[in-house]
Amino acid sequence: MEVFKYKKPLSLMSKSKRFGLVSVILLVLSLGLILTKGFNYGIDFAGGTLVQVKYEGKAPIDKVREAIGNDKNYEGATVTYFGSEDEVVIRTKMSSKSLGEDIGDKMRTLLKDTGNFKVRRVDMVGAKVGSELREKGLMSMLLAIIGILIYVSFRFEWRFAIASVLALVHDVTIAMGAVVLFGIEVNLDTLAALLTILGYSLNDTIIVFDRIREGIRTIKDPDLGAIIDESVTRTLSRTTLTSLTTFFVVLTLFLFGGEIIRGFSFTLLVGVVVGTYSSIFVASPILMWLGFSVSDFRLKEAEKVKREKEKEKMRAMYENGTL
Amino acid sequence: MKTLNFRVILFAFALIFGIVFSIPSLTQSESGKKITLGLDLQGGLHMLLGIKSEIAIESRTKSMAASVKYIFDDEEIIFDDLRMVDGKQITFELLDADDVAKAKELLKKELEGTVLSEDGLKFSLEMTAEEITRTKQNAIKQAVDTIRNRLNEFGLAEPTVAKQGEDKILVEVPGIKTQEDEQRIRELIARAAHLQLMAVDEDRAARVATMSVNEAKSFGDVILPDVNTQERYLLRQIPVLDGSMLTDAKVGFDENNQPVINFTLNGQGAKIFGDFTAKSIGKRMAVVLDNKVYSAPSIRERIGGGRVQISGNFKLEEAHDLAIALRSGALLAPVYVMEKRSVGPSLGADSIKASSMALALGFVLVVLFMILYYGMAGVVANVALIGNLFLILAIMSLFGATLTLPGMAGIVLTVGMAVDANVIINERIRELLYAGKSVAKSIEDGYSNAFTAILDANVTTLIAAVVLYAYGTGAIKGFALTMSIGILASMLTAIVGTHGIYQWILPRIDKKKLNFWFGIKAEGAK
User: Fold this and answer.
1) CATH 3.40.50.1970 for domain B6-42+344-518
2) Is B274 a residue whose pLDDT tops 70?
3) Surface-to-core class of residue B403, CB atoms within 10 Å of its CB (0-12 exposed, 13-18 middle, 19+ buried)
4) Of A283, B197, B354, B487, which residue is most buried, by most CB within 10 angstroms?
5) Does B516 touch chain A (CB under 8 A)?
6) CA of A249: which chain B residue's CA is closest?
7) Which of A201, A241, A244 to mutate to test the interface with B (most CBs of B within 10 A)?
8) Is A116 on the interface with B (CB under 8 A)?
9) How many domains does chain A have?
10) Domain shared by A248 and A181, yes or no
């Protein structure tokens, strides 16, 4: 089957302002959401307790709320269905340091008269651990970005590195915006999803950049816009196909992977779409705006080659004993 | 043209290796190295415990005070006003100035790691800073060992107890069936099991009902409650002896057939106990466990042999757990929960079902898509994908790695991303075929053109995965692990493996049937 058969380069760069505008709007909306509505931190980062309870048959959610509301300690606790109508999740900001009787045990006592049920999961994170995890999470994001910057600068050029990292920030910000918009709870696995988006979206961008790097060497026309158009078009089929296969599997994970990893799979789903968009429409224009010059790059490459040759000449002379 | 080449042989080895070593995990056989399921998949209890190490300092100080008393009594040095200040200092006064030199020498010899300061005949004894650090470190090490012993004695399969960071303890207990069992295990871990035999302050005992805590302190006493009733006891603050001199503890039954715990003291303990009981006939001695008085019988005669009984209206189960706790030793410092995650076995099973379903469906979708789009080239990519999956399982099995729910997600994601390399390669091959290159040339150049892109892309993804592994905790580490292994394995299967397969089947590739082989209708191909 052939869907993206290359005929001539798409003129993407001429429309780059329009795509840029779309990205800026999405970014502003996302940042606005993050700043105004804020993240819905789950217990991993905020501390607290989560108790998952499964009933035989439909869960009597009103009775559960009432039973828990009777205990003043759990004021502000929320009860929601989880995955199916048989199962509910109780979330409270309370955590207990005691090993003996924990909040799960107390919930079991409180819910005693609400029907036949089983406590299937109790997660409790103390406030101190929560803030530690949040710090570590932020740190890991930064470290990943720094690592990527260094590697890309080393393999390509600093402008490529900046462009790819800006594209990453773009993707992660928009994914975070979607997380806020849909009220997804931010836990450790959401963070893992965001880091995966980092890796994934970069993957896409690198493939395009690799083509641009190749184009700079092989295409005669020194116009960067034309090289980018040609390279992006050449990789369009790969970008779309890989995104599709990844999208498929993430979608199955989202639909069938179970409620527990839904926050993870949702975040990834958004990330795959945004990541694909950004590697086609965002990363390369940034390269141009950063003032990347094809002729300068060629000059530098040529110099590098020259230096190498000189070195070799010297070495040869040295070996021949003429130096 | 040669048919077999080193690449395809390497791939075949990798595939056989993958299959052989993933069999134990797939069949869940008893023998062989296999993947352990994470607690979120098999159910279990995961806890991060903190430790109140200042309490270890306090109890160390207390036992130092007990030693001082014992040494002075033994050497007939007369002293007064021995007490503990702020939980880290002991003060006492010598009554006879002639004893000072002897006392100093004795304390220096018997109590290592302490500093003695004097003010006339008043002395204060404190641990050195190094000794305090050592005691804290010791407390955490001892807590790890003690908790491990207790869990092992409880008869649980493969509990993990390990020190994490400077002052945290990680406890993982798989295979807990019910919430009630879990609670019992938590109580067993938390039990300080701090046993003390303490003398009742008979001179002032009658006034205990009206005495304040501070007043008791001024006499060098403490007030402790009875374990079952409302009664309170006035006891000498410095115990006669404590659980560190205990050698064994067993469940037994008293004359009323009530469960009791019989314990035995070591030689030194038995001697102290014998001496004390001989001196204190007619007085009471309290058996105190975790600051609760279990019994306070009157001493009728000297008790030798070092056998003591604790009774306290125990349930059999309770007595059993308590005996375990006493046998495995006291916790030098109490522990508390910083983080706890517990998953019931049925939820774990549901998670396995759901994630396997997602994996299977995602796999089928990708496989079908690749065949549909690339024809035989898609089949080749799929062979590599299968090899990749087996390799992930095999490598994880060999390292005895833990598969968590996010880890399963990592494998699912790898399925999507591992074919990426083949998509890149196939696109390159197609490009060359469109350009009219021969099949053999297209394949060779396709691979070399695609290589840098795949390498750079994989390395950057790997950077993110490694950071995730280094900074992630628990289940998230599992995700980073499977993804990293998946990426590395895909370099072997998707690049080297498929290249080898092409070289192997090259003679059979019919250049007239490019649609069948590569899914394209290339006109100009030679």
Assistant:
1) no
2) yes
3) buried
4) A283
5) no
6) B362
7) A241
8) no
9) 2
10) yes
